[in-house]
Amino acid sequence: MKSKTVRKPAAKKPTKSTKPARKADPALQLLKLVVQAMDAKKAESLQVLDVSDQSSITDYLVLGTATSEPHLRALRVELEKVLDSNRAKILGMDAAKGSGWTVVDAFEIMIHLFTAENRDKYRMESLWKDAVDIPVIKLLK
């Protein structure tokens, strides 16, 4: 007599994961938009520092250089557009006319824009030398 082999039922293939989709870090997404906007408006020497381990007031510093006071104003205006369109709160802003330095505090991101003379004078990068330098090219993708 022939015996029949009994097969086990095939295991069910997993369907779509029941885990919730991982959300992108909103601060990192906003950081990318800020850097892309500054790059599009020809800010020079863009530098991004992760200062989350060193600072209790912000996570990222964006440093950029404007070619002139009008360029500095144009960068600030574009920055405000990006932050407003993404519903990011601007906690503070210092953009005194003729100062050559604009600071925009968007809580997790603080943006410092300088004229070339003031960038060289204040050398913010050296104050945050323990911070992690984030390659700008990664944020432009």
TrEMBL record:
GO terms for biological process: cytosolic ribosome assembly; negative regulation of ribosome biogenesis; negative regulation of translation. It is found in: Cytoplasm. Gene3D superfamilies: Beta Polymerase, domain 2 (3.30.460.10). It comes from the Bacteria. One of its GO terms (cellular component) is cytoplasm. Keywords: Cytoplasm, Repressor, Translation regulation. Pfam families: RsfS. InterPro entries: Iojap/RsfS/C7orf30, NT_sf. The keyword Repressor applies. SUPFAM superfamilies: Nucleotidyltransferase (SSF81301). NCBIfam families: rsfS_iojap_ybeB (TIGR00090). Functions as a ribosomal silencing factor. Interacts with ribosomal protein uL14 (rplN), blocking formation of intersubunit bridge B8. Prevents association of the 30S and 50S ribosomal subunits and the formation of functional ribosomes, thus repressing translation. This is Ribosomal silencing factor RsfS. The gene is rsfS.
